[in-house]
Amino acid sequence: MSILSVRHLQKHFGDLKVLNDIDFEVQEGETVCIIGSSGSGKSTLLRCLNLLEMPDGGEICYHDKNIMEGHIDLNMHRAKIGMVFQSFYLFNNMNVLENCVLGQRKVLKRDRKACEAKALELLTKVGMEKFVKAMPSTLSGGQKQRVAIARALCMDPEVLLFDEPTSALDPEMVNDVLNVMKGLSGSGLTMVVVTHEMSFAHDVADRVIFMDKGVIEEEGTPEQLFDNPQKERTKAFLSHEK
Ligand code: ADP
Ligand code: MG
C-alpha cells in the first residue's frame, strides 16, 4: 500500500525550476534512499512532503488524500511525516528529555507522564538514555542527531524523512547514526533518506532514486542502480562518488 504518492510535482523558486514533474511513491515499510548532486532538488522534495515548502503544481497524496487541497493540520501532518535535518534543530534552551516531550504535549496532547515514558523509551532505542538531563550544547553532533531521531520517533510517525542526517557529523560519529537508522529500517519503519552515504544506500535501501536537475533520472533496487545503472548521468554521478 502507498503511504505517500506524489504525481507531477512542480516547484519553482522565481525562474528556477527546482522540481519538474516528479512522480514518486513510498510504500509502507519501505526504505527509499535519494541520491544526487548538490542542487538537484532533493531537500526541496523532502520539504514538500511535509509541507515545509508549498509545491506549485501536481499532487501529494497521503493515504490517498491530496494534502495540497482543503484544510490540513500542519503540526499533525509533520508529526505523522517526521523529518530529521542535517543540522539537528534541537531546542537549545531545553534538555534532551524536554526536547522529546514538547511536541508530544503540544501536538498529541499526551499527559506529561506518558510523554516522559515515551521519551525515555525512544532515547534508549537510540542509545541516549543516559543524557536525559543534558543540554544540547554539551552533546557531540552524533549525539544531537540521535536525540533528534528519538524526538521525531516520539510523535509515532508513519514516515520519517531524513535530509543528509550524517553530513554535518565528524567521521567517527557517522556510523553511530547510520546504525540507528539501519535498526529503524530493519524494524519496518517507513523511511525516505537523502544521503551521500552510498554504502548505506546500497545495503539498507529497498529502492534508490537518483535525482538530477529537478527530475528523477533513474530509480531501481540498489543492485540495479549501483551495479547496473542505465543512464549516462547516473553513471557519471556514481563514478564521482566512488
Ligand atoms: P539539494 O538538496 O539536492 O542540494 P535543494 O532542494 O536544496 O537541492 O535545492 C535545489 C535548488 O533550489 C538549488 O538551486 C537551490 O539553490 C534552490 N533553492 C532551494 N531553496 C531555495 C529557496 N528557498 N529560495 C530560492 N532558491 C532555493
Ligand atoms: Mg539538500
TrEMBL record:
Membrane-related topology note: Peripheral membrane protein
GO molecular function, one term: ATP hydrolysis activity
Presence of the UniProt keyword Nucleotidyltransferase in the record: no
Superkingdom of the source species: Bacteria
Record-linked InterPro entries: AAA+_ATPase, ABC_ATPase_HisP-typ, ABC_transporter-like_ATP-bd, ABC_transporter-like_CS, MetN_ABC_transporter-like, P-loop_NTPase
Keyword vocabulary terms for this entry: Amino-acid transport, ATP-binding, Cell membrane, Membrane, Nucleotide-binding, Transport
Domain annotation ABC transporter: ranges: 4-238
A GO CC term attached to the entry: plasma membrane
A Pfam family assignment: ABC_tran
Location in the cell: Cell membrane
CDD domains (UniProt xref): ABC_HisP_GlnQ
Key word Signal present: no
PROSITE patterns xref list: ABC_TRANSPORTER_1, ABC_TRANSPORTER_2
Similarity annotation: Belongs to the ABC transporter superfamily.
Protein name per Swiss-Prot or TrEMBL: ATP-binding cassette domain-containing protein
Lineage: Bacteria, Bacillati, Bacillota, Erysipelotrichia, Erysipelotrichales
